[in-house]
Amino acid sequence: MVRRAALKLGLGLALAPRLALAQTEPARERPKEGDFLVPVSGSGAEPIKPDDLPRDGRQTFAWPMDPSTKTVRDGSRLNKVLLLRLDAESFDPETKERAAEGVVAYSAICPHTGCDVTNWHPDRQLLECPCHYSMYDPKDGAKVVSGPSPRRLPALPLKLADEQLVVAKPFIGRPGFQQM
Asked: Domain spans of the chain?
């Protein structure tokens, strides 16, 4: 028993520097105020502009990028953001305040079991997680419309700077899911 405790302590001490490094790795840090958003797909790290997104179209997936170091924060899938460009007049007041030129940003990770929210229903303008069919209304703060998700998608407030989409504040809500 003493030997087992000593082994656990030794292993913990050996892994501690690696865990500390992983937590401070810039690519793993959550989106920060002033970060640009860059497309998940594609080789370039050109910041996204509202006109790059189709109006009333399918969501675009993005990563936050530190503007000074050009570090793309793709070291954690919890940083994956989905962007939609919709008619801002259809937004509830809270969503309108967080949007930039009709573009809203939410965590791309479903709070139910952690799947990527990849389905878009243009006829109803709803997002859907393909794993268990939770539906979210992006015009109303990505609140849950149906399905087993326990909460809305965390919002990422945006602003414009030099015609580019920029993170205005960190995620409102915790991205990811809670294991049972």
From this structure: 1-26, 31-167
Against a cut of 0.90, is the pTM above it?
A: no
What DSSP element (H or E) covers 37? strand 36-39
Closest CA to 81 of 125, 116, 133: 116
On whether the CB atoms of residues 132 and 148 are closer than 8 A, the answer is yes
CA–CA dist 8, 10 (Å, integer): 5
CATH of domain 31-167: 2.102.10.10
Edge to edge, the sheet with strand 126-128 lists: 119-121, 126-128, 135-137, 143-146
Q: What is the pLDDT of residue 57?
A: 84
pLDDT tens-digit profile of 49-89? 999 999 988 899 999 999 999 999 999 999 999 999 999 99
Q: Quick one: DSSP state of residue 72?
A: B
